[in-house]
């Protein structure tokens, strides 16, 4: 059986197509696309089809599983509206069996229509399926382009205290910070370099992708989102944007200055994730951390190590590309189990 698992986010839509023989995974192929749902949600159906066809003909797909976080984008008045719009578009796109990841497991279209918020931002439920392949007792951290999930697992089952993004933002289980799309001014009030502290401009000047390009921690291929100024994604372009954060430019600052700033910013974001992790650890009394997502080595591993915890990577069971779309992989796994 060939199952497509989609994770439809506010900015990125990820896909994993898995060939199953019973419950055994025979092959995984993955892809993703930048799709800003706040402005281009009418393109969703086209993007879903294109992603599949990048890998195989749509006719080869036996079933589709969907997880989502796109319901939060400001194109929708409420999260309920967002969930139902995504469901409607997915149902119109596929003729094969389709179901949706919810906080209690897979849900049919009818079940979603009764309780749509059960599917809102539930993609971490899918990622938990993969984390249990490494340990039945751990905390997994998944940092993607935009957010960080910090989810405890005990006896092979997720045991998050919060079940919605709203609740998880109070428990440490959601830290709204990511590897690419996070505005630097959202977690900085000052930047320290050249022996001085500079207050930052609270503007949409630079994002975390700019920092990690400058530090050689991501490539232009990884930088899939739009830039804040509409310009390029080279190191120089990124450095220009970072300089603006302290009301400067590259005639006032050297590239060495920008690198020093970027290292400081990196440490601040690591500390932001470590703060959420510390809260979850203190609540759950778990000390093995499993990392995944684009930020698994850039942010999650150093955050866990800064607190002295043992760290394992989901890269032990998945490739780096598969880790980047781990919720989509988990969604396909859940869909296969749902059908069987």
Q: How are the strands of the biggest sheet laid out side by side?
A: 3-2-1-4-5-6
Beta-strand proportion: 15-25%
Q: Mean pLDDT, rounded to whole units?
A: 97
* Low-pLDDT segments, ≥5 res: none
Main β-sheet, in a few words? 6 strands, mixed
* Overall number of domains: 2
Order of helices and strands: EEEHHEHEEHHEEEHEEEHHHEHEHH
CATH superfamily annotation of the largest domain: conserved archaeal protein q6m145
Work out the helix count. Answer: 12
The CATH topology assignment of the largest domain is: Nucleotidyltransferase, domain 5
Number of E strands:
14
Q: Could you say which overall geometry the principal axes of the C-alpha atoms support?
A: globular
Measure the end-to-end span: 11 Å
Radius of gyration: 20 Å
Q: CATH class of the largest domain, please?
A: Alpha Beta
């Amino acid at each position: 059986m060939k199952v497509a698992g989609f994770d439809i986010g506010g900015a990125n839509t990820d896909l994993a197509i898995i060939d199953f023989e019973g419950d055994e995974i025979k092959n995984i192929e993955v892809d993703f696309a930048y799709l800003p749902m706040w402005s281009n949600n009418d393109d969703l159906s086209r993007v879903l089809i294109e992603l599949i066809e990048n890998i195989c003909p749509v006719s080869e797909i036996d079933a589709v599983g969907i997880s989502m976080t796109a319901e939060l984008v400001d194109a929708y008045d409420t999260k309920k509206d967002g969930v139902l719009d995504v469901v409607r578009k997915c149902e119109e796109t596929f003729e094969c069996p389709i179901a949706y990841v919810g906080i209690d497991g897979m849900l049919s279209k009818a079940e979603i229509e009764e309780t749509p918020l059960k599917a809102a931002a539930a993609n971490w439920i899918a990622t938990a399926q993969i984390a249990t392949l490494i340990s039945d007792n751990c905390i997994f951290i998944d940092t993607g382009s935009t957010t960080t999930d910090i989810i405890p697992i005990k006896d092979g089952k997720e045991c998050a205290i919060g079940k919605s993004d709203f609740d998880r933002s109070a428990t440490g289980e959601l830290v709204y910070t990511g590897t690419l799309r996070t505005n630097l001014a959202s977690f900085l009030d000052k930047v320290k370099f050249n022996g001085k502290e500079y207050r930052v401009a609270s503007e949409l000047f630079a994002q975390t992708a700019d920092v990690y390009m400058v530090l050689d921690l991501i490539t232009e291929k990884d930088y899939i989102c739009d830039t804040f100024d509409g310009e390029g994604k080279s190191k120089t372009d990124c450095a220009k944007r970072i300089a603006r954060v302290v009301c400067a430019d590259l005639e006032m600052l050297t590239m060495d200055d920008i690198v020093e700033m970027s290292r400081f910013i990196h440490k601040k974001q690591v500390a932001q994730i470590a703060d959420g992790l510390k809260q979850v650890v203190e609540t759950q009394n778990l000390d093995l951390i499993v990392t995944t997502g684009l930020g698994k080595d850039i942010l999650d591993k150093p955050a866990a190590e800064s607190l002295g915890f043992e760290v394992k990577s989901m890269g032990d069971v998945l490739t780096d590309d598969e880790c980047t779309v781990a919720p989509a992989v988990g969604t396909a796994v859940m869909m296969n189990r749902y059908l069987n």
